[in-house]
TrEMBL record:
Subcellular location: Mitochondrion
The name this protein goes by in its record: Small ribosomal subunit protein uS13m
PANTHER family per the UniProt record, alphabetical: 30S RIBOSOMAL PROTEIN S13/40S RIBOSOMAL PROTEIN S18 (PTHR10871), SMALL RIBOSOMAL SUBUNIT PROTEIN US13M (PTHR10871:SF8)
Listed InterPro entries: Rbsml_uS13_C (IPR027437), Ribosomal_uS13 (IPR001892), Ribosomal_uS13-like_H2TH (IPR010979), Ribosomal_uS13_CS (IPR018269)
A biological-process GO annotation: translation
Stated role: Located at the top of the head of the small subunit, it contacts several helices of the 18S rRNA.
Keyword Ribonucleoprotein (UniProt): yes
Entry similarity comment: Belongs to the universal ribosomal protein uS13 family.
One Gene Ontology CC term in the entry: small ribosomal subunit
Superkingdom: Eukaryota
SUPFAM superfamilies per the UniProt record, alphabetical: S13-like H2TH domain (SSF46946)
Keyword tRNA-binding (UniProt): no
Single GO MF annotation: rRNA binding
Length: 120
């Protein structure tokens, strides 16, 4: 097992697939990182050298917001929406869908994700 930015990467998977385990790195960004380093699409994580790991870490940390930084930015943006009192902020605060989805029968997922506890 290899660690990049505190995320455990499976050694038997391809690099482009293993990088998607990092929060904020999707398939497209993982392929971009591999292309910048000139890595093959089929290379596995356990075949990487220490230098290649360092280069991957350098590229990701310089070019992308990932992991706790990205989570902090998302939370800050949500708090800003709530504080200015806009429609999206109100919907965030109420735990309802933001983008016009139906709420009569659906929106159970959105309500499940709400983490407000009412106990006192």
């Amino acid at each position: 097992m290899s660690y990049i930015l505190g995320t455990n990467l499976n050694s038997n998977k391809q690099v482009k697939i293993a990088l998607t385990r990092i929060f904020g790195i999707g398939p497209k960004k993982a392929i971009q990182v591999c292309d910048q380093l000139g890595l093959s699409n089929n290379i596995k994580v356990n075949k990487l050298t220490k230098y290649q790991f360092d280069q991957i870490l350098k590229i990701i940390s310089q070019n992308y917001l990932v992991d706790s930084e990205l989570k902090r930015v998302i939370q800050r943006d949500i708090k800003r929406l709530i504080s200015i009192g806009c429609y999206r902020g109100f919907r965030h605060n109420a735990g309802l869908p933001l983008r016009g989805q139906r709420t009569h029968t659906n929106a159970k997922t959105c309500r499940k994700l709400r983490y407000v506890s009412i106990r006192s």
